[in-house]
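Collaborator request, handled under Task 6.
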Amino acid sequence: MFSREEGLRRWFLLPLVLTVVSFLLTSSTICTRQFALAGGTCCSDYGTCDGRCDIYKPCACTCHACAMRPDLYDACHSSYAQNWGNAARIAGFPVNANPNEGDIVVFQPGVYGASSLGHVAYVEDVNAGKFSISERGYISDPCNIYDGRQLLDVVPGIEFIHRKNSDPHLILNSAVNISPNPSDAGETVNISFAVKNIGDSTLHMDEIFVRSTFPNQQPDGDWKAWAVPVDIPAGKQRNFTASAPTWEGEPDTFTSYHGNWKIKEIIYFDTNRDWYSLDLNGHSLPSFQTNKPRVRIIADRTGVVVNSKWTKITFPYQMEGSGNDLVYLFANICSEKGSDTAHLDIKQPTFSHVWMRVEEDGGGWHGKEDICYLAVSQSATYFNVRGAENIKQPDPGQWHWVSYNWNPDHNYPMAANVSTEIGGDNVHLDLNTEVNGFWVRLEEDLHEDGSHGLERVDWINWRGSPPSGVRSGQLSAVTHEWRSNTWTNAFADPPVVIARITSENGPDCALTDLKEVGRKGFNVRVEECLPCGSCAHWIGERIAWMAVNPGVLEW
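Structure tokens returned to the collaborator:
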């Protein structure tokens, strides 16, 4: 038995193999499809093929048709081409206007340039209702087999002579259903349909394939789904579900294979390794749609687009999840272009997007900033020390304790932020980390009354990062003066950097500022929310940071 890949190679290599075999055949060989395709001279001389085709002139269209379908000899040998359909019908052959591979197509005079006696040819392939032929007697090359007429439309004056049903013969006996449709690129697609054997003997099927073109004109060949082997007795129907992922390979190749897929044909081969196209029996072959793949962790930069108005930031890929699953979102300004104190507000992170704005601590307009962000789905396997807390701040002096779901051996760097922005007051998050967890509170930047309503706080520990170049660390004693942090090895691109104060040593409201986040490092400082001549933040703070190249960190 061959594997399905070997079977496909064998299918496409069959003409080459048969060409070699033809040198071993004698002139007494019966005119078969294989012999004619292999270059046999069935009709080039009188007296060949045991006399079965020798009544036809060597350059006649009927010569090639007889060579390819010697089963029609008795029915058609005394008829002109235009009469082959009626002669075959009288002899019990199915004749209609539905093309199948292996048929003889009959052209009435004038159709596609047929002569006054009509024309016949052999159907080599059928694709989406169009048919391709091989023939003799074509005007530009009458004495050789010509296969240059491809994908012809079925028009009035054309009919097709099928094989008799004494042999196994499969027809499509239902619509072709596809699920899920649409699907995500890389997801397994199931294509279900029913076939019926309208022949008089059992078909021993080895495999059945559904072939489709790739979307976006991908050049790498055809996609195929396949179903398991089965015997189909005469007159019986069998239901199939052919399954395959919409692309096999590394997940990053999925991005090239989303779009519209068109099913080209359904083919099968029997235990003798002979290939056949499924008779569509009047049914059409559908298309199906794939979306961009869903991802579990993505890091990105927005570009300089977010100002003091709420801005919708759409993720490059849909995040994995459904229903009430969470998307944890961590973000900060990483350009610090404005001169005024400001922080980032986040609200409504979803599977596809999040809303952001730059809010000045004293109120007012703020220019556009570049935002670094990290989105993590609830199903992510990396960064597995993470969570979301619902926190209300009735008293400005109250701190809330959050324990990690593991026992670390030291104080790992982490980050947290408000991800809902439900309240109307200007607010940010204060953090003070320890080995086993952290203290957190909501601090209003303007110190109006210090109390704040319920907000969702997303938090994450940089332990358990994915193996994709994530770097993290902590800087100590950072003050209001800009401080440079550089890396020994530069990133390939300007990275995404998430940084937070995790010590909250001073009594004043303070934030982390980042700027010049580039391939070799970044600059950071602690900025007090209400700057003035005497409000410099002299008390050194601990800054925890994470940096990674933009992109998908986990599919």
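The cover message to the collaborator said: "The chain has three domains: 4-161, 170-291, 297-554. The chain is about 10% helix and 40% strand. Please let us know whether this matches your experimental observations."
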